[in-house]
Design brief:
single chain, mainly alpha
């Protein structure tokens, strides 16, 4: 280290006062401080800079002879405690610290990884629990010392031992059946253990032990599958999200699990057909509904629900994309109000079926209308019925779904709701005069919509005039421009294959 890089005594002292002794000692390890600087710090008068000697005692790269001098010159508890934790402290000093009268010094010595086995064995019987707690965390402990500490009268000592990284298997087995729940659970949740031991803990029928086992980041696959067969719902619920259950696990949950667990199984993708058929007969309607909504539902199970007339299941089937069109029409034939409402929200519903249900089912048409989903081909009677509905969305559907005459549109544009009037203005049969009148509508949105349509009609290309009969070939006569071509809105129809079924449905709704 060059002189330019070496900090001065004042700089070191200022940093100690700012960050503390231990943090500064760790921070200044690289590059190492010169021995001369450390000697100068140790020689400072204790009454002017008491932190200087504490820093040298804690500095992990201090020369051993300097640490030995500090022990002789400054035998204060603070300095000796720091020396007892320093890896450079000479072995004979460690022996002295392990037998020191002050428990704080002995506690620091008990933590030292280089403490001889004889001193370790002496400290396990220390009369101060704080010393034994510190010793329990020493990585140098072996089975002889651990076998004594597992029977320590202080639970805190046994807890500290349970967190020991070098805990022997026999000691872990003893701590796992400790009278203290804290010791027992801490051992199961964190102590080193082989796969056989972990599987043994997984087979216990104690809920707290099994939950503690799940605190571990990883477990043997066998242990996880054993936990999935636990008799405790809380355990099964937590473990099922961290493993891929096999067919046996799913069968166990489907037959012995609670309703929430059976719902979870019923909603799983790639569920085997035998399990689907088993769950289709579940006594809980929510389980059957979860199965009916499974996007990989077996067609035979869907048919079973429909034939059975299971209303909750049919409601879930209404939104299942896996259903064939014939099955969708079959659940519509149940005429359950909840099923008809659910069908209104089904994506890609067959247009023919949608038109039939709008015509025949007030419940369906209301739910369809509030989504503002388009539909054409309404017959006149149904359209008139929809116009009497107090819900503006239904009246809007009536306006859009029927090929109204111009005279009818003049009547409909008087609707008090702006969104309905906008639908009238946007109707393909709306005459130019009606659109022009809407330019002055009191509602700004209606007026803006009319303005856009009016401008679009002004900008449309004009058809070329035909030459007059008997006139010159170069002479063109101007024909009056039609106000608006009235398109014919053909009713939507189902596919030919479904035609017969739709006719049957229409008869059912009569």
């Amino acid at each position: 280290m060059s002189a330019a890089q070496t900090p001065t005594i004042d700089v070191v002292l200022a940093r100690i006062r700012q960050d503390g002794v231990r943090r500064t000692a760790q921070a200044l390890r690289k590059p190492p401080l010169p021995s001369s600087l450390l000697q100068e710090l140790a020689d400072l008068p204790p009454n002017t800079a008491p932190e200087a000697r504490a820093f040298v005692a804690a500095y992990p790269l201090a020369p051993s002879h300097l640490l030995e001098n500090l022990a002789a010159q400054s035998p204060t508890t603070a300095v000796l405690s720091l020396l007892a934790a320093n890896p450079r402290t000479p072995p004979h000093l460690l022996l002295e610290f392990a037998a020191h009268a002050n428990a704080a010094v002995r506690s620091q010595a008990a933590l030292h990884p280089q403490l001889p086995a004889r001193e370790l064995l002496t400290l396990v019987d220390d009369n101060e629990a704080s010393v034994r707690r510190a010793l329990a965390t020493n990585p140098g402990l072996r089975l002889p010392q651990q076998s004594i500490l597992v029977c320590d009268s202080d639970p805190a000592v046994r807890v500290a031992l349970a967190g020991q990284s070098s805990l022997a298997a026999p000691a872990a087995l003893v701590l796992a059946i400790d009278d203290s729940a804290v010791v027992r659970l801490h051992t199961v949740g964190s102590a080193p253990a082989d796969d056989d031991t972990l599987c043994g803990w997984a087979t216990t029928d104690e809920e707290d032990v099994q939950l503690a086992l799940l605190q571990r980041r990883s477990l043997p696959k066998n242990a996880e599958h054993l936990l999935l067969q636990s008799s405790h719902h809380t355990v099964r619920q937590r473990v099922r999200e961290r493993i891929q259950p096999d067919a046996i696990d799913l069968l166990n949950l489907a037959t012995t699990g609670e309703a929430e667990e059976r719902r979870w199984v019923a909603a799983r993708r790639a569920l085997p057909r035998p399990l689907q058929r088993l769950l289709a007969q579940d006594g809980d309607a929510s389980v059957r509904s979860a199965l009916a909504g499974n996007p990989q539902l077996d067609p035979s199970v869907a048919t079973y629900f429909i034939d059975l007339g299971d209303e909750p299941a049919c409601v879930a089937l209404a939104g299942n994309p896996a259903l064939a069109e014939e099955q969708v029409q079959a659940i519509a034939a149940t005429r359950y109000p909840a099923v008809l409402a659910a069908l209104a929200y089904r994506e890609n519903l067959d247009p023919g079926l949608a038109g039939l249900l709008v015509n025949c089912s007030p419940i369906f048409r209301r739910h369809w209308a509030i989504q503002d989903r388009p539909l054409s081909g309404l017959d006149a009677a149904t359209a008139r019925t929809l116009l009497d509905d107090p819900l503006p969305a239904v009246r809007r559907l009536a306006v859009r779904g029927h090929a109204w005459r111009r005279a009818d549109l003049y009547e409909l544009v008087r609707d008090p709701i702006a969104s309905v009037r906008i639908a009238v203005v946007q109707h393909p049969n709306a005459p130019d005069e009606l659109v022009a009148d809407a330019l002055t509508d009191v509602d700004l949105e209606v007026a803006a919509c009319a303005r856009a349509i009016h401008q679009a009609r002004l900008n449309r290309p004009k058809p070329a005039s035909l030459p007059a009969v008997g006139g010159s070939a170069n002479t063109l006569t101007t024909q009056p421009e039609p106000t608006l071509a009235i398109p014919v809105i053909a009713p939507l129809s189902a596919t030919p294959v479904a035609g017969n079924l739709l006719n049957k449905l229409a008869r059912l709704f009569r």
